[in-house]
Design a protein that fits this description.
With 116 residues, the chain is mainly alpha-helical. The protein is built from 4 helices and no strands. It has one domain.
Amino acid sequence: MTTVVIINFTIGMLLVGLALYRGREVEHRQITWLSYLSLGVPILLFMLMYLTPTSATGVLLVGLPIGTFVSLICSIVALFKMDEKKLIPSVGLFLTLILTSVITMYGIFLFTPLAP
């Protein structure tokens, strides 16, 4: 289980490092709606994951994978825009990768219901 988290964290570190290296010559950077979206979607998904009652598991089974995919795309696009500040999309990417790890672990336990 920790292997999944370590792999996701390593991928995130490499993506952030590559994005910082790629945009190092740009002087004027700004924060756009894409940065806020890449941070807001994972926070909303964490709230959805922990605040929904157990009777609404169908929302979680559909909403978490779709929302995680949207947040991952937004974070990567915001990271690789040249004139975008990188802090907010980096935090959003790490939250998204934590959600990806949770979904992966949940999927492993969903398809292998027997105890180890």
